[in-house]
Amino acid sequence: MDVTYYIVLIFGVLLVILELFKLACRPKKHPQKALDIGSCMTIGSRDVQEDQVGTLTTESGVLAALADGSGKVFGGRIAAKIAVDTCVEMFKDYNAFHNPQYYFRKAFRCANTEILKAVEDESRGNASLGCAMIRAGYLYYALVGNVKICVYREGTLVPVSTGHTVAVLAEQKFQEGKISRQSALAMLENHRLYNYLGRDDFKDIEFFDAPVSLKPLDIVVLMSDGIYELLGQREVEEVLKGGGSCQEKALQIIEKVNTNPADERDNASIILIQMGNGALQ
After folding, report:
1. Which of 21, 78, 144, 273 is the most exposed place for a label (fewest CB within 10 A)?
2. Domain annotation covers residue 177
């Protein structure tokens, strides 16, 4: 065998080693296909649908955003759409999981700015926004307003967020000793928001204290007040503990809203994300 043969052989071996090195260094994809995702909305008895929902699955993880708009004419609908679209578009641009709190803060503040540009003032359009990210079996979340974020586990719906209603604020102030018990009780039935997107003096957002460790078959739930104030926790739990996919369960919950005998039914929206029945990587 001549020298040329050995040179070709060595070159071929080097190419194989290089390809193996590339495969070893390639970032591993997280098995997001193990997650079951469903969402649904209803206009209720309102004239305009002011809720908006959005989900996005990438190699990095899963994003879910739910906004509940409020305002005159179509201002609430516009504000809610801007809120959800901003979160989704920013999630596409970079890996938000490197610094989830930075992503949430930037997305919410950008959404607030864009809403102010699009509507004349906060009475014309504003929105509550709940946003959740899931990666490798952990839940990261942030919200402003009264969107509720929960985890359904072993038959119980557990809220992980508190929200920005006057009632919540009253309870916090009472616990801190800043208002009397009588004043707190007088405010507890007040569900008016004190913080939301679409205002010049937009305050900080509610973050996760630490990522929530999820278990197999846990369901992450994002829902607007059109669901939890009308149906309550027990009715939602009854659906979640049943069989079917997340999309089927979301449809069942919205059907309960549509068939509820209440005279006034608000816009209602829900997103469900269930973890797979296996190892969460």
Report:
1. 21
2. no
Pairing of strands 126-135, 219-223: unpaired
Q: Let me know: does 118 contact 110? Beta carbons within 8 Å.
A: no
Report if residue 173 sits inside a domain.
no
pTM over 0.70: yes
CA distances from 14 to 2, 25, 26, 169 (A): 19, 16, 18, 65
State pLDDT tens for residues 109-137.
999 999 999 987 666 889 999 999 999 99
| Domain count across the chain | 1
For residue 168, give the 3-state DSSP assignment: helix
Dihedral sign, Cα of residue 44, residue 48, residue 50, residue 56? positive
Which CATH number belongs to the domain containing residue 241 in this structure? 3.60.40.10
- Token look-up 């305050």 returns 203
- Establish if 100 belongs to a structural domain: yes
Cβ neighbour number for residue 204 with a 10 Å cutoff:
11
Instruction: Report the b/e string of 18-43 with b at 16+ CB within 10 A.
Output: eeeeeeeeeeeebebebbbbbbbbbb
For residue 67, the enclosing domain spans: 30-164+203-274
Question: What type of residue sits at position 105?
Answer: R
* Tokens describing residue 6: 């050995």
- Residue 153's nearest CA partner among 70, 237, 234, 48 is 237
